[in-house]
Each structure stands twice: as structure tokens, then as C-alpha cells.
Model the fold of this input.
Amino acid sequence: MKAAEIFEKLWEQYTGENPSAELIYNLFQNSGERVVNDHVAFRTFDDPRVNIDVIARPFLEAGYVPAGDYYFEAKKLRARHYELPEDAESPRVFISELILDEFSENLRRMVRSQLDAVPEELLASPELIFRGNLSKSISYEVFERLREESEYAAWLYAFGFRANHFTVSINYLNGFDRLEAVNDFLKENGYPLNNSGGEIKGSPEQLLEQSSTLADRVKVSFTDGVHTIPGCYYEFALRYPDEHGRIFSGFIAGSADKIFESTDFR
Ligand code: NI
Done:
């Protein structure tokens, strides 16, 4: 699958369940902007069946290469980002994985049993990244127990493999050169932002500023009832040139740490 086809399919799935993203995208388009994605993010577990290397496969086949490694101590996550060297406008791919060994045996058992339910041929297939939740029968009780240890694990249990967020590149917008202006525009239009660590994560000195909406609330059918839980969010990123005039292309762990909280309960 070509990169563009992968992102088109991911976008369809993402906006299907998180209508705010498409409404915000339309807001920009209607004000004459061309929306280019800075990055698209995935979440996974470090289990060898679904770890970063597995989720990255379809992107590597599409020509992507690894371009940065990250570690999030408090959230017990590792991440890697990938880029497509032949196309600067193709979004970076940011994949994080939960380090299962750092959690209780209880959590590990719940995760393993969900992964056991994923058919082997799917684990080996490029379709895995569109799979959605890990098993077709998920329980709210398990979701809640996961959430006690990790909001990330609970989100992943409920929503699985899909784009966790798309990210609008502010660098490509003509009418906005500051992230504050984008944030004001979003708030004026009724989209609340993730305020954890302040609306803007990062700084011009760090060469990257990011903000994000709070995740849409999504109705999910669990075996023990339908519950409304935080789904996906939309992110906005502004990159600055380094001292050699090259636009910074990596990620700032301290900022991403707070962005992860866009899908927390509140
Ligand atoms: Ni992001």
C-alpha cells in the first residue's frame, strides 16, 4: 500500500468516529488553507506480536525510515518516529508502545489475553493498523481496571490500532503563523483544548510547539453496557528552524508526555 492510501484509510476511520477532527479540518479548508499533516500517531504495547516494529511494517514498506527514538519515564512508554525521505509533505509517523514489564502482573495478563484474541494472520498483515480494538468483545470492567494503572492502556484496549491523532502542520498554514492564533481560532469555534501542562506544549527554543483538542467523547459498546469514553483528538504543531536554518523534525518528550493526556478522563 502506498503511504497516501494508508493515510486516506486511517483518516476515514479516524474522522468516522471523531467528527470534531473533520469539522476542524473543514474550518481550515473553508478559510482557504491547505491542511498538511505534521504527523500521525499510533499507540501499541511492547508485546513482540504488536510492538513498534510490527506497527511500523506497512510504513517501512511504503518507504518510511526510522528518524528518532523517545522514552517517557512517567508514562512507561517508548516511541519512535518515522519519515518518508522522498516526500517532505508526507506526515511523520509517531508510534509509541507501553512497556508492559513495568506494570502489574494483573495488567499484563489482561493485555495478553486480549492479544491472544487477535487472529495470527491479522498480526502478520498490513491491515493490523486498521484493526480497531484488539478483541471484538471488550468489557468495561477490564477497561476500568486498566485505567487504574494506565489511561494509555485503557484507551488502547478500547480503541486499538488506528490513528490516535492526526496533526495539522501550522508551518503550512498561510493565515496563522503563531500557535496562539490557531488555539484562539479553535476556541472561538467551540473546540476545547487540552490544558494539561498549559495549552501550548514546548517553546520556540525547543523548536517545537504543540497543542491539541480534548478527545471527542465516543459511545463504545462493551459486553457490560454502552459507555461514553474519550476517543481520539486532533493536534496542531508548529516547528522552528535550528541554528543551521533546518526545520526541527523530531519530538520533545516532555511535551508529548502532556499531549498523551488528551485522551484522559476528566
Ligand atoms: Ni502528536
Observations:
- The chain has one domain: 3-263.
- Residues 39, 41, 94, 165, 167, 235, 259 surround nickel (II) ion (CB under 6 Å).
